[in-house]
């Protein structure tokens, strides 16, 4: 019986995820193939542009903000809308915040709890608040 309930919950979760991805795409967010976005992640759908590549994993509690309302408060002539680009094969750890005008290179891991406020080159392990590159990732 437990197996049937667990399987049913898994299927329900997949349906909810399909609907959520449809909502994100209808909101203008580009999402690649084989990408996982936790239902607990907050993806900014109101302002700016967000591109998420193939085989990206965005975990629970992550926030992607392609805008910054404070900019308009400080200087009414500045544009509060920006862009986030997450290239292929990126893992973004739990409770990470990605700010506007950031590009995360392919094959990169962002550690949990990071504040990504600058571009991250491909093949990097980056973490911290603010984010810093810890090392390059080499593939065998």
Which value, in Å, is the CA radius of gyration?
A: 16 Å
Task: Summarize the biggest pleated sheet.
Answer: 6 strands, mixed
Q: What's the helical proportion of residues?
A: 10-25%
Q: End-to-end span in angstroms?
A: 44 Å
| Chain-averaged pLDDT | 91
Unreliable runs: none
Query: Could you give the order of strands across the largest sheet?
Result: 2-5-8-11-13-14
Number of helices: 2
The total count of strands amounts to 14
Please tell me about this protein's structure.
This protein is α/β, with parallel strands linked by helices and 140 residues long. Helix content is 22%, strand content 27%. The chain contains two helices and 14 strands, in the order H-E-E-E-E-E-E-H-E-E-E-E-E-E-E-E. The protein has helices spanning 2-26, 69-74; strands at 30-31, 36-37, 42-43, 49-52, 57-58, 63-64, 83-86, 91-92, 97-98, 102-104, 109-110, 115-116, 124-127, 132-136. The protein has a six-stranded mixed sheet with strand order 2-5-8-11-13-14, with no helix packed on it. It has a four-stranded parallel sheet with strand order 1-4-7-10, with helices on one face. Strands 3-6-9-12 form a four-stranded parallel sheet, with no helix packed on it. Strand 13 and strand 14 form a beta hairpin. The termini are far apart.
């Amino acid at each position: 019986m437990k197996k049937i309930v667990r399987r049913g919950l898994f299927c329900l979760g997949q349906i909810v995820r399909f609907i959520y991805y449809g909502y994100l795409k209808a909101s203008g967010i580009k999402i690649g193939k084989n990408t996982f976005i936790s239902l607990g992640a907050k993806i900014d759908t109101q302002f700016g542009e967000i591109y998420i590549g193939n085989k990206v994993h965005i975990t629970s509690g992550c926030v992607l903000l392609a805008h910054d309302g404070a900019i308009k408060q400080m200087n009414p002539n500045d544009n509060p809308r920006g862009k986030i680009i997450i290239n292929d094969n990126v893992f973004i750890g739990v409770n990470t915040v990605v700010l506007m005008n950031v590009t995360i290179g392919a094959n990169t891991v962002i550690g949990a709890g990071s504040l990504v406020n600058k571009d991250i080159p491909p093949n990097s392990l980056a973490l911290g608040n603010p984010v810093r590159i810890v090392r390059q990732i080499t593939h065998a």
